[in-house]
Amino acid sequence: MDAKNKKLGRLASEVAKALRGKTAADYLPNRTTFPKIIVKNVDKIEFSEAKLKDTFFQRYSGYPGGRKVFSAWDLAQKDKREVLRHAIWGMLHKNRLKKEMIKNLTLYHGEEK
């Protein structure tokens, strides 16, 4: 898939559907054959600056004072691939196969491959 000039949410929903295998002609919900998805030109995705500044992610280590909060805008400044990966992660089914599906996702900055 090519991410050039596409909105973050729309691209993430397309990729999540493809990772599930629903774009294949022989899709059956009881079969677990997940295709490999390659997304290129991730650095050219259109982001809404206001939405990214209002969206916050958090991690918790389990220790007192171990909660880390950071905005999607800060993450996008470092690596836009991680913002897209987080959006796709949230759109996948919440079951045991989620980790297996996300392993088949490859994100490239430019025109590689």
Written description of the protein model:
There is one protein chain. The protein has 113 residues and is an alpha+beta fold. The chain has one domain (8-107): Alpha-Beta Complex (Ribosomal Protein L13p, Chain: A), CATH 3.90.1180. It contains five helices and four strands; from the N terminus they run αβαββαααβ. The protein has helices spanning 8-20, 49-54, 72-78, 80-91, 98-103; strands at 37-39, 56-60, 67-71, 105-107. The strands form two sheets. It has a two-stranded parallel ribbon. It has a two-stranded antiparallel sheet with strand order 2-3. Strand 2 (56-60) and strand 3 (67-71) form a beta hairpin. The longest helix is centred in the first third of the chain and has 13 residues, at 8-20. The mean pLDDT is 89.
Mean pLDDT: 89
- Please identify the top-level CATH class: Alpha Beta
Q: So what's the overall shape?
A: globular
Helix proportion range = 25-40%
Order of neighbouring strands in the sheet with most strands: 1-4
The CATH architecture designation is: Alpha-Beta Complex
CA-CA gap between termini: 11 Å
Unreliable residue runs: none
Q: Order of helices and strands, N to C?
A: HEHEEHHHE
Number of strands: 4
CATH fold description:
Ribosomal Protein L13p, Chain: A
Full CATH superfamily name? Ribosomal protein L13
The number of domains is 1
Question: How large, in whole angstroms, is the Cα Rg?
Answer: 15 Å
User: Sheet bearing the most strands, described?
Assistant: 2 strands, parallel
**Beta-strand residue percentage:** 5-15%
Structural class: alpha+beta
Q: How many H/I helical runs?
A: 5
